[in-house]
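Hi both,

Apologies for the delay on this - the queue was longer than expected. I finally got the flavin-adenine dinucleotide-bound model through. Below you'll find the protein sequence and the ligand SMILES exactly as submitted, and right after that the structure tokens for the full complex including the ligand.
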Amino acid sequence: MRPACDYLAGSGIATNRGVLVDAMMQTSAPSVWAAGDVAEAPAFPGPERVIAGILPEAVAQGRIAGMAMAGDAALQPYRGSVPCNTYGFFGETAISVGTGVATASADDAEIHVRHEHDTGAYWRIALRDNRLVGIAAVNLALDAGILCEVIRREIDLSACKASFIAEPRDTACRLMSRLWR
Ligand SMILES: Cc1cc2nc3c(=O)[nH]c(=O)nc-3n(C[C@H](O)[C@H](O)[C@H](O)COP(=O)(O)OP(=O)(O)OC[C@H]3O[C@@H](n4cnc5c(N)ncnc54)[C@H](O)[C@@H]3O)c2cc1C
């Protein structure tokens, strides 16, 4: 997904792949904000900026841009986007949350791969410092929202690592029922 930003050439609004914004969705121009698919905004945990390209992040960014425009005292900076996608293809299901799972050599990430021949389930987990940075799976039931929160909260999985690798969904649900407050 690539937004059309050519029309901004010479406007003083800085662009890269999208319109560059800070954590308040402010562009490089005063009194101009951008949000959603057009915005290249901070990624979680940073420091890079990315086009999130999904609806929940567009909503979160739009809320911040609106509050910033209105000078709302309750304005909080954007937490940064965590990639989160689910798909159905040729009768299979797939899910991908976070980063660090695209290549086996993902920098210093600790990669765990499982494949169940009976069910066709495949999952791949990337941890860094015992914290989840990414998970991708085919034909395995996972809760994308919960896994996003496990990443965002940088939850230390040391105490339940083996169980998380074997049963990511149930372990993440158990963890978040304890920690959500
Ligand atoms: C096929 C497809 C499937 C997707 N599936 C998912 C999904 O399952 N989950 C998910 O989270 N995200 C999904 N997305 C992404 C999600 O739709 C976008 O991230 C989200 O809609 C971005 O919101 P936005 O407000 O930035 O842009 P948009 O929703 O594109 O809204 C931009 C609006 O601006 C209007 N506009 C454009 N130019 C002008 C102009 N010059 N003047 C006035 N109005 C203008 C457009 O008509 C449009 O209504 C999908 C996207 C596509 C294309």
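Main takeaway for now: The domain at 6-70 is CATH 3.50.50.60 (FAD/NAD(P)-binding domain).

I'll put the files on the shared drive as well.

H.
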